[in-house]
Fold:
Amino acid sequence: MDRLAELDIFCHVVSAGSMSAAGRELGLSPPVISKRIKRLEERLGTRLLQRTTRQIALTETGRGFYERVVAILATVDEAEAWVSRRSEVARGLLRVTAPTSFGRMHIAPHMRGFLQRYPEITLELALSDSFVDVIGDGFDLAIRIADLADTSLVARRLAPNHRLLCATPDYLAGHGTPAALDDLARHALLLHGGDSWKLEGPDGPVSVRVESPIRTNSSEVVREAVLAGIGIALRSTWDVGPELREGRLVRVLPEYHATSRVAVHAVYPSRRHLAHKVRVFIDFLAALYGAEPYWDRGLAMPGRLNSDAATV
Structure:
């Protein structure tokens, strides 16, 4: 630290033009400034400053040394500023949008822990299954469960999203268990939105046309329908993990699952100047979920992906 202080004193002397002026800036007497400069020159084994009664001037070596020291001190200042930003208090209104079911099941139950950790944040959580314009609607970030290969926003992957075919034991007992993909044509298939399932299997991607006996715009209605034994549904493990572990639902055609490109993401407008309140919320969810989220524990899952941050 003494060596760094000597470099700082040296730069102040050069920029101020005299030891007395540098002393006034640093709150040190001219003799102390002179002593520290002398010690620096002795340690380096060369003269850095030419002293006269009225002014000082850099030697050729001193000029080269000064240019390099300025860069070093600027790097130190930047590092300290980074630490300061990291340790600043997260505060203010944090506006988050998320899918209805996921937000209710995997964000709302953890709000107490987050707000206890960051008491100066006010969390506004808006749940919607419709596409939300993050920038246009004034949200700080959105939680999206999707394949975000084409988004212009910044997306940080928080957790994998495993979707698999499932039904109740009673339904399968009464209608038979499908042994092959073609067998699905003889079953009630439950779907909200769209008209097909995009699956991955032993032979690669495949599309299954779905004619659902129930028409709805609600994923939660489909969830209740499959639990009621109406048919087979393609559901995420974050949605039906407990039912799978308890045996209330069982997997159907386990060699097939939805695309692994779909994942749980935090989406926000820009990586630059990211507000501290946004960063701590994203970090909180990333630590909470992780590469193997709690809702997948105890379940045999298809291949996993790395969880990292990326601009996509």
